[in-house]
Amino acid sequence: MRRIMNYQRPTELHEKANADAMAIFAEHISQFKGVCDVLRDIEGNLSAIGNDALKSALLSPGRVVQTDDGAEWQHDVDLSKITSVCHRRTAEGLEFAVVECLPLKSGEMKSVLNNGHNVREVLREFMRDQRQVLNLWKDDVKAQVREHLDEKYPHQDMGIVVESFEIKMARSISETRMVAHQSQSRGMKISM
User: Which residue segment(s) compose the domain that 52 sits in?
Assistant: First the structure.
């Protein structure tokens, strides 16, 4: 029988290293899961958010959001504490954007993350980009955990501990994809 994964049972040292790393990287994991939860909520409500943004763009001008490049957008719908869907009128019709507003000591930095004429496609592109960011973040935390464990436990194979962090974070990312897939595959169910 062929083994798919090279699984080994964790030793006491692995358990101790895992508990140590979990304590040190708890804030990273908490923030990561929080962002995954926000994205899961957005992805689960993508159609409704798109409809709300389109309705808002057609019915009311919304407050003005000026991005750092000088462009003016009308606020439609908040996606999170720092991102929102906005629109502006152009010669080609309505243009939508996901605008990020980052609070800084010197003021707010406002930038367009995604834009286009189809609000649903703008939202889908935003979600694809956010999943890529999550994967980069996961890889960064994995590297930090590996570095920490290499320093604290030299000459010890801590791969199983690093892998457990990667699996936890990958699971959070995949849960956002499952919500997206479930919301896209809703329809009539026929029982036999």
Answer: 32-181
